[in-house]
Design goal:
Chain lengths: ~325, ~325
Amino acid sequence: MATSRSPELRKDAIHSRWVIFSPARARRPSDFKSKSDPNPNSKNQTECAFCAGHEHECAPEIFRFPPDSTSDWKIRVIRNLYPALSRELDPPNSESVGGPVTIPGFGFHDVVIESPAHPIHLTDLSADQIADVLLAYKKRIHQLRAFDSIKYVQVFKNHGASAGASMSHSHSQIVALPIVPPTASARIQSMKEDFAQTGKCGLCQVKQDDLLIDESSHFISIVPFAATFPFEIWIVPRDHSSHFHELDNNKALDLGSLLKLMLVKMSLQLNNPPYNFMIHTAPLQIDSTELPFTHWFIQIVPQLSGVGGFELGTGCYINPVFPEDAAKVLREVLIPN
Amino acid sequence: MATSRSPELRKDAIHSRWVIFSPARARRPSDFKSKSDPNPNSKNQTECAFCAGHEHECAPEIFRFPPDSTSDWKIRVIRNLYPALSRELDPPNSESVGGPVTIPGFGFHDVVIESPAHPIHLTDLSADQIADVLLAYKKRIHQLRAFDSIKYVQVFKNHGASAGASMSHSHSQIVALPIVPPTASARIQSMKEDFAQTGKCGLCQVKQDDLLIDESSHFISIVPFAATFPFEIWIVPRDHSSHFHELDNNKALDLGSLLKLMLVKMSLQLNNPPYNFMIHTAPLQIDSTELPFTHWFIQIVPQLSGVGGFELGTGCYINPVFPEDAAKVLREVLIPN
């Protein structure tokens, strides 16, 4: 890492959020390799409730792929047994303004079981199998859109116990919220201000050679200019698109391939770290005037360090790795045949 | 915990930030007790660079208390050996607006060594010794205010490795920033909107009987209405005050006593968990029109669970413990004589 550099503060056009790049806090490159055991459950566990044959141990199923499969399913979308929000409550009517506010916790919290087999990780799947997982997200979002009181859908994956996974069987989660969450509102506001100044969508313009990791027909993968976390990766559609659920089959296959490549590169470079990925999309009921400056993307974050009082207090993160250096390291990872 | 409750979303007037309270994700009360070893260094370490007699191993000293002490100092404020920001750089002139922005990482990053003795924790100090630590923060902030380009000072403490501490010797940190960080800007904006609606400062009004833990002559301690984290505690001045550095000696002693009580109660109830505390104050160069709705406070956060993709993606936290329940538990902790 470039330890001869001076510290810098950067604010990107997407989030208007300051990040401190601090080479004095950098460790040697090898120190970034993860040391934690990513397996959240017992190391010798070979079967769990998410495995084929254990369907009756799970919360109710929403759908499976292929739809008519019995014991030979590839993907199952089920309810979360411990949902953060309840689908049984009355949907809230409208959002109050100002002062302390309470609304019922109406919403949906689902789990996408990505494979019937316990030891398979997402990166073990082929590009077209990963595309099917992405299309399962899409299908579920289309179902959730039918609820007027659902304002936002967050798709995310926790891989590894320290990234928040409580089950080691490969899965991701979908939470449908009755509010637009803070990160989405702040991003829209920031991209709107940027659009007003430049006349262009900030994510349509995001490509910079020194930040590029790889690209495919329809997507690019970069380290963002003001990456919050070391080795954070964004996968961004080349063409302007506000909602993830606009993804078609062709683009899903292309994205499956690039997502797999990024996860494999990150795993090789950083010793299979715990990680999260999040799909950042536009709110469901977005005003059509806001579509020109909202652009969905996937954020991948390896969990390499914890959060301390400085980050909790300021909302400002200290990143010891400059994005150009992280992009170079990830660009140059050699994938064994 | 009240597992018969339904999930709720709450937004407080201070942050306009949604938090999901989700009893379905609650564990048994005993499960909240910390299981992690809070000691960041080797368990048998009895001396380090922060100990009396090792002053030459540290980065340069800024001041000590008592000022004329030689080997019998009580508190030392020193530079951080691995500062996030550099005091050697030219201060940035002004903040650009819009688009990707880079400014030099000018700033200060100091360490407050709270005791000369290695095994002493902050809670082992007497109320007046803790008051001296608070007055050391105040003195250093008064020095940092002299720099026009310093816009905000964040005081924080990381206790325990998983809370971000790299040294087990009791210490806290002070970072002086050339920007107003996102959390402070968002809080001011939110409190301003609340003030415009109610005509009152949201933190002058914050006391609610069921959220109160304890109180002293000049401060109250509560669990906030929309606590982000389980068993989060705020200590709030009763009288309106925008800046922490307005603290006088009398109030420092009163605060030292209440801060100690809160840390002891948290430690007893949750098995000495790793924790952070942060002093949330107003920006240094705040406009006088903003003083009526900015009110400093201390936030204490026990580190009981990690952050997953949902929180990273949405900025919305899931808290399994309702604030009224957390306040009751903390109110009723019995302190052994």
